[in-house]
């Protein structure tokens, strides 16, 4: 039995297109109502909506401007940076600026709604106070970030706060009084500049006239404020906003420059975990003794060669949620992953290999970096840690290998992109590289589409050799929505699918 990949998606394609039409019709209806309300209520509603979006865009501008300021402050680190590098940093880091600007614009949106119903003088007091607090807060964050980066080597997060509140005396012991006074002075200047920008652009000298259609204006403004959810979350994909989305370069300093320290501080503070005492089950000496027993002592001073060539091309396929029960050669059921069973006789089969973890992000780190997976957290969520991990791709890149990563899903999920780029992989093919008609699963493009793209790239692009190409599957991820129905069990459908895929893939190579 063979797979007709063009027919596999027909039953889902119509369903997904229908759902998208309903969603688009719903959004278009809301947008039409908003535009009609603006037309009917004239100048007042237009001015108040424009003021709201002007507030949001001003926050975006102020936040984005700090990136070139950071690079100019550390001009020695970015001595070779060109104008295009400054622009790339701003553009790639814009998603985090849009997110933070969304958070900062919620209160102004609510104050504009309140201005429709409450005393203008009261709203003016709240508004001036809010922008004053934001100016001081931004000044504090950006000053601390610029000052501490030279010592810590990463953008501001909750780490300095942890040390300060744990022991303020020790945290301030290494700081000279002159440096403290100088930093406070910088912070004050920063706060004044921020506040003056907000005051000149946003502070109204005269209140808007009372609008007779308060209810309609409130509805429209509430809808506009609700739209902030989109940049705050980072869109509608499965991945939410995370620091990894701004990573784009194999130069880690440029990636750091693209990070918004407000976001990194907020994210680390909300998801802060103290790992110090979580895994202390015995004293260090006893743990070292037990671990030493698990370490194999080399019987020779050389490693036996597994390949005929010294620098072979490598295709590394990572199977999501695969199980040994789908393979007869591993003691599982027959007639499931038939072609995979056939391939076991042509290479080396590890029969005592177990899953690294129960989640993709944790298992991926274990596979590529050899880092043990933790039961309650994932190191992939901490880019400042993953950038220091050794990895197979990083070692091969140092040996002259060309690296590429294929994944039909969202490469920004759980900071995956930042880990891959830190490992030296800048050429990443993900869901955004496939047309919408191919992204029919919850997670993105199904594996047979990704494998087809992979084979096409090898045949047409003639990649640089030697190369390491990694393919990560996703069709076998829950909810196991596999477009293949030779077997009824959802756990074995993807095993059978991969059997077919690997058979076709192996023959094509």
From TrEMBL:
Chain ranges passing through the membrane: 48-74, 94-118, 130-152, 172-198, 219-236
Coiled-coil portions: none
Keyword field contains Membrane: yes
Domain spans labelled Sulfatase N-terminal: 312-482
InterPro entries associated with the record: Alkaline_phosphatase_core_sf, OpgB/LTA_synthase_biosynth, Sulfatase_N
A matching Pfam family: Sulfatase
Membrane association type: Multi-pass membrane protein
Cellular localization per UniProt: Cell membrane
One CC-aspect GO term: plasma membrane
Alphabetized UniProt keyword annotations: Cell membrane, Membrane, Transmembrane, Transmembrane helix
Official protein name in the record: Sulfatase N-terminal domain-containing protein
Biological source species: termite gut metagenome
